[in-house]
């Protein structure tokens, strides 16, 4: 079976598996984390056709023909080999979380939010961030990072 993952066509063998395990175990994309296994915590969040998706609940066969984006698919590598972080990634570097286990969920949810709304209100940021759990209570830094990412995407320094 073929999947479109991070802009590349990838051949996968485990068609009866959940997307999380195919990404991690078969494709080696370990930026997507396993947390609760029941879709509540958000550590396994990826984007499927731009929509926030819990990969721990998603059968891999259901994403055939759709664009899957993981944390690893956000940064861009230039012709010279230099890596440019996505504005959301850069914002989380500037506003780090304590342990980072929840980071994939927060980053991917923020990317989806900012793609839909480049200038979210604080309430919209809270709503977006609230779908992911942070064991360390880093929600203030999540809010700061998403607001900063919105600035960066709009060209603010």
Automatic annotation (TrEMBL):
Keyword Metal-binding (UniProt): yes
2Fe-2S ferredoxin-type domain residues are 1-74
**Which UniProt keyword terms apply here?**
2Fe-2S, Iron, Iron-sulfur, Metal-binding, Oxidoreductase
Instruction: Read off the InterPro entries from this record.
Output: 2Fe-2S-bd (IPR002888), 2Fe-2S-bd_dom_sf (IPR036884), 2Fe-2S_ferredoxin-like_sf (IPR036010), 2Fe-2S_ferredoxin-type (IPR001041), 2Fe2S_fd_BS (IPR006058), Beta-grasp_dom_sf (IPR012675), Diverse_Oxidoreductases (IPR051452)
Q: Which domain of life is it from?
A: Bacteria
A Pfam match: Fer2
Q: Name one GO molecular function term.
A: metal ion binding
The protein depicted here goes by the name Isoquinoline 1-oxidoreductase alpha subunit
Species source reads Deinococcus marmoris
The record lists the lineage as: Bacteria, Thermotogati, Deinococcota, Deinococci, Deinococcales
């Amino acid at each position: 079976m073929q999947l479109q993952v991070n802009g590349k066509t990838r051949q996968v063998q485990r068609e009866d598996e959940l997307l999380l395990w195919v990404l991690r175990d078969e494709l080696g994309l370990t930026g997507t984390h396993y947390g609760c296994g029941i879709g509540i915590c958000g550590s396994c969040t990826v984007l499927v056709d731009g929509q926030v998706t819990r990969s721990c609940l998603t059968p891999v066969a259901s994403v055939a023909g759709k664009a899957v984006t993981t944390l690893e698919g956000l940064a861009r590598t230039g012709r010279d080999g230099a890596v440019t972080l996505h504005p959301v990634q850069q914002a989380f570097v500037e506003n780090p979380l304590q342990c980072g286990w929840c980071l994939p969920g927060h980053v991917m949810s923020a990317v989806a939010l900012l793609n839909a709304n480049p200038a979210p209100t604080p309430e919209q940021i809270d709503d977006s961030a609230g779908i992911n759990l942070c064991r360390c209570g880093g929600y203030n830094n999540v809010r700061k990072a998403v607001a900063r990412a919105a600035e960066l995407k709009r060209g603010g320094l």
